[in-house]
Q: What sequence folds into this?
């Protein structure tokens, strides 16, 4: 735990229990497939906290969203114009979104600094992610964002599920496998939020998750899949369910908000007791190795920029360079609060 | 229906945005051509912009995200789903296209969005359509090897590939793309070797190091799934290495039961999404807004 205290933040030292450390708002990263209702859920969570007169901080990471139904404190669209990125680099909508988020990730050190500053005075930091899930889960920038958040603030991943659309057993399994995939990708405390319970109650899902036979019966009635494979996958999922927190919510009616926030609180407890020690141990182990690699990538990036050259955005070197940028803040942290870089404005 | 002489072959190339679908389509097409197998690449992604390969047919001749975005005021996601559903309700358009290709080998460059495989049964309907026309179909799922640099991310990749393939019920191959970009890093290369021919004992040990104790049982269950079913193994693809391309194609051929020996031709293609960074990085400014109702 001594090594864990590392160079991080001066304002917090949550090794062990969170009791004596200054309270930090949890970062709730909302991930889900297109149409699952991420943005509406963020809107509802935001409204709910406002109603309770609890301060909340909202970050939008979707560069392509047209209408945002809530006021974001930080909005990727203020930093990167996705249409302009598409035009400038002759990219399609997908490439445009991926590139916009990559560009934004190069400024994530500043976002992180702001979030750290705002964390003590808020109940919760909500983070809305791009509509198309893979833009976040399988991109360099998504990995950088979740990793640096998880290393800095108590971070919880919420996977939003479109409940009415996964009442078929195979779709349900797909969703659960994908959720499990995100658990492995992010390695952070995890909450399944079954959204749209105003349309279909999530009772069937709870039943399938707790009663293996009920699920197998449903599956066999619907599909010709080899029973062996389905069973093996079920065994995997059974273990997944065993430690899973799941809540039914309705972004539309506001149902399930209290359950949602108590799940967040539980997950935060788990973050401190189980995830943070692992994160800190891995970071200590990697610190030496990475320092050399980052210095090299950063040097290369600087050289590229100086020579007016082209930077590979869709690749490992950009990921390493951006991650170097994102973590660099921690090396200088605690020196001067006001010196947060010159190229962003803050409106109070 | 079952006569081998009328059997035709198609690959569906899938994977997240940026996983290298377009590049894959191009090098496989070129490789096929070099070994006198007539292959066509068909773009099924209504959001595609530019192609590295000669496009034999493009879905955007019928409908594109750009069109619907402007007229229906849909965002990129809604637009994509709308386009695919539109295509599927007008499949007779494809009859003619596919008819023109005769018995040639088809490579479909598919949209990456996972929702098209799970929530809307678009890709499943498309597979059924091909099968009704005597196509043997193989799904090729690409993952960028740069994002699979540690065991937990490999497991994540296995799960996301499985989630995507679950609905299609066709032979399935996982390909680790862009190996040429990681092969110079010996540590990454060594790690990747453990995934290609999964050494689950090693993976499990590494994974348990990286995860909380509560998750160890899940790790074990997943490791035994990988042990029991070869469907979750990966074939590496280094596009600068003809032998590597050949091996990938052989795997697909085996899945499709396509029985021909191919010749090898040198072909070096590299593709990056390149940025002239200086101008753009200068444009990036961050803004924080105080929202109504915040204390203080």
A:
């Amino acid at each position: 735990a001594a090594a864990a205290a590392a160079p991080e933040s001066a304002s917090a030292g949550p090794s062990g229990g969170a009791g004596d450390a200054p309270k930090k708002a949890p970062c709730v990263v909302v991930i889900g497939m297109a149409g699952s209702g991420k943005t509406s859920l963020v809107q509802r969570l935001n409204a709910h906290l406002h109603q309770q007169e609890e301060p909340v901080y909202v970050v939008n990471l979707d560069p392509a969203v047209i209408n945002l139904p809530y006021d974001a404190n930080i909005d990727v669209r203020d930093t990167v114009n996705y249409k302009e990125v598409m035009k400038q680099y002759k990219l399609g909508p997908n490439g445009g979104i991926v590139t916009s988020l990559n560009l934004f990730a190069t400024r994530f050190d500043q976002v992180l600094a702001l979030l750290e500053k705002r964390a003590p005075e808020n109940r919760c930091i909500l983070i809305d992610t791009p509509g198309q899930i893979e833009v976040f889960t399988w991109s360099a920038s998504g990995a950088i964002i979740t990793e640096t958040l998880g290393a800095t603030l108590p971070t919880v991943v919420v996977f939003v599920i479109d409940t009415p659309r996964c009442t078929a057993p195979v779709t349900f399994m797909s969703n659960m496998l994908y959720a499990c995939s995100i658990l492995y990708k992010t390695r952070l405390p995890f909450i399944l939020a079954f959204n749209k319970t105003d349309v279909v109650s999530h009772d069937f899902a709870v039943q399938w998750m707790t009663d293996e036979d009920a699920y197998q019966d449903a599956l066999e009635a619907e599909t010709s899949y080899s029973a062996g494979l389905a069973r093996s996958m079920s065994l995997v999922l059974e273990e997944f369910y065993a430690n899973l927190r799941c809540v039914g919510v309705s972004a539309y009616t506001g149902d399930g908000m209290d359950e949602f926030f108590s799940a967040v609180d539980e997950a935060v407890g788990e973050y401190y007791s189980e995830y943070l020690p692992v994160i800190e141990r891995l970071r200590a182990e990697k610190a030496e190795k990475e320092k050399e690699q980052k210095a090299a990538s950063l040097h290369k990036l600087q050289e590229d920029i100086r020579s007016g050259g082209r930077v590979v955005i869709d690749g490992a070197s950009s990921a390493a360079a951006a991650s170097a940028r994102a973590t660099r803040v921690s090396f200088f942290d605690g020196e001067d609060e006001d010196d947060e870089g010159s190229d962003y404005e803050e409106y109070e | 229906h079952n006569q081998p002489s009328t059997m035709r072959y198609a690959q569906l190339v899938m994977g997240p945005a940026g996983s290298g679908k377009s590049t894959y389509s191009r090098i496989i097409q070129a490789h096929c051509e070099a070994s006198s197998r007539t292959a066509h690449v068909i773009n099924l992604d209504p959001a595609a912009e530019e192609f590295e390969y000669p496009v034999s047919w493009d879905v955007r001749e019928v409908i594109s995200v750009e069109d619907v975005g402007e007229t229906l005021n849909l965002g990129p996601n809604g637009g994509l789903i709308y386009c695919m559903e539109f295509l599927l309700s007008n499949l007779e358009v494809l009859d003619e296209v596919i008819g023109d290709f005769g018995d040639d080998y088809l490579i479909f460059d598919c949209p990456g969005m996972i929702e098209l495989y799970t929530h809307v049964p678009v890709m499943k309907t498309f597979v059924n359509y091909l099968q009704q026309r005597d196509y043997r179909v193989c799904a090729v799922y690409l993952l960028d090897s740069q994002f699979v640099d540690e065991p937990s991310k490999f497991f994540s990749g296995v799960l996301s590939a499985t989630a995507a393939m679950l609905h299609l019920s066709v032979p399935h191959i996982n390909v680790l793309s862009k190996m040429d970009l990681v092969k110079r890093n010996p540590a990454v290369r060594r790690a990747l070797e453990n995934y290609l021919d999964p050494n689950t004992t090693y993976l499990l040990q590494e994974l348990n190091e990286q995860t909380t104790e509560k998750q160890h049982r899940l790790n074990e269950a997943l490791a035994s799934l990988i042990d029991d079913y070869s469907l979750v193994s990966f074939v590496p693809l280094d596009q600068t290495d003809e032998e590597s391309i050949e091996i990938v194609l052989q795997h697909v051929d085996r899945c499709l039961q396509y029985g021909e020996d191919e010749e090898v031709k040198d072909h070096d293609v590299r593709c990056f999404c390149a940025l002239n960074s200086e101008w753009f990085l200068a444009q990036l400014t961050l803004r924080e807004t105080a929202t109504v109702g915040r204390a203080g």
